[in-house]
């Protein structure tokens, strides 16, 4: 999938994350993370973002994330929502993990 334009998902509330995704003219993945817990969990947050991009076949994008202590499932959901908005997708089969 190709990112068509800039899109956002999330809030700046506690335990949430704001994710902005936009096209990358360099044709690679770039992640810019701001987080009060970056020293402890920065690598894990970036891994969740990267894994979600791969799952959704995104190979080129700039992702700016402002984390306020979000759990991995919230990070994944916000990245998915931002991607869907950025590719103008209106139909998506959401999966529930058991």
Automatic annotation (TrEMBL):
Listed InterPro entries: CitD, Mal_deCO2ase/Cit_lyase_ACP
Localization: Cytoplasm
Primary subcellular site in the record, as a coarse category: cytoplasm
Pfam families xrefs: ACP
Record keywords, A-Z: Cytoplasm, Lyase, Phosphoprotein
Sample GO molecular function, one term: citrate (pro-3S)-lyase activity
Top-rank lineage group of the source organism: Bacteria
Lyase recorded as keyword: yes
Modified residues (O-(phosphoribosyl dephospho-coenzyme A)serine): 14
Family: Belongs to the CitD family.
Function: Covalent carrier of the coenzyme of citrate lyase.
Subunit relationships: Oligomer with a subunit composition of (alpha,beta,gamma)6.
The protein, known as: Citrate lyase acyl carrier protein
Gene name of this polypeptide: citD
């Amino acid at each position: 999938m190709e990112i068509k334009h800039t899109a956002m998902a999330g809030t700046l509330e506690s335990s949430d994350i704001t994710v902005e995704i936009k096209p990358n003219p360099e044709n690679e993945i770039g992640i810019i993370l701001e987080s009060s817990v970056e020293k402890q969990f920065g690598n894990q947050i970036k891994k969740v973002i990267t894994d979600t991009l791969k799952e959704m076949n995104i190979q080129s994008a700039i992702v700016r994330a402002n984390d306020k202590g979000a759990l991995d499932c919230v990070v994944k959901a916000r990245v998915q929502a931002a991607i869907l908005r950025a590719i103008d997708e209106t139909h998506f089969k959401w999966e529930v993990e058991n």
